[in-house]
Amino acid sequence: MTSMLMSYREWGVRKRAYLLCAWLCLALAAAGAFLPLLPTTPFLLCSVWLSVKADSGLAHWLVNHRRFGPPIRRWQSERTLARSTKWLATAMITANWLLLWVLGASLPLLAALAAGFCAALAMIWRIPTTRPGVGTRENEA
To answer: Which chain regions cross the lipid bilayer (predicted)?
Structure first.
């Protein structure tokens, strides 16, 4: 009985931790809509995954949200990214690297960031591109 009660308590703590992390990821995703170096979609997807693990209503709210919902539904249905998202990520990453260069960041830092940014962009551009009309509310009826 004690071990059963302990695992129930641990699960309660675990659910709260998942929910806390889900809200943290959602906050980072919201910040990413305004901050150039912070990505939005990966944090949204992490937030949905964590909120499902926490068994909360946050996942349902995110998937049906007017702003956050379409990229999540697109990812869930097709595992794709919009071409505009890929170009925006490319532009933001390039702008950030150029800003660091203009501000006089050290060469080793610039080289390391260039390698990391190139790897991130290679992963982003390898993800299939969304077909027109997929993941929108009009086509889900």
So the answer is: 109-127
